[in-house]
Specification:
This protein is mostly helical and about 130 residues long. The protein is built from 3 helices and 4 strands.
Length: about 130
């Protein structure tokens, strides 16, 4: 059972997925920093010194921090756009295979009885006409 697990874990797809998860986590942190430390202060400044991380309201005893939610939405939009651009670029880089040439016909139609016969036939097997 240990050998089967080792074979499974070392298979290419599993290792590729592990690397993708690690890189994705690091990429998410970079984007979160970009949004929190660069974009949101600039957007807040453009909106008159608004600090999105402090936007909240209280309902009874619950504090609803909708500013943090807005920052998370901007994080998501940026990450989704970057992933879209990466996938689009990868799709454009893949070699486009030309359409295969149509195969040569192997049958033809008898001009007398209109039945389908082999292209090599010199006489129709149905009506016995010379072709």
């Amino acid at each position: 059972m240990l050998k089967e697990f080792k074979d499974f874990a070392m298979r290419g797809n599993v290792m590729d997925l592990a690397v993708a998860v690690i890189i994705g986590g690091a990429f998410g942190k970079i984007i979160a920093s970009l949004v929190n430390d660069v974009l949101m202060p600039l957007i807040g400044l453009a909106l008159g010194g608004l600090n999105f991380s402090e936007l909240a309201f209280t309902y009874k005893e619950a504090v609803v921090k909708y500013g943090v939610f807005i920052q998370s939405i901007i994080d998501f939009v940026i990450i989704a756009f970057v992933i879209f651009m990466l996938v689009r670029t990868m799709n454009n880089m893949q070699k486009k295979e030309p359409a295969p040439a149509p195969a040569a016909p192997t049958t033809k139609e008898c001009p007398h009885c209109f039945s389908t016969i082999s292209i090599k036939a010199t006489r129709c097997p149905n009506c016995t006409s010379q072709l």
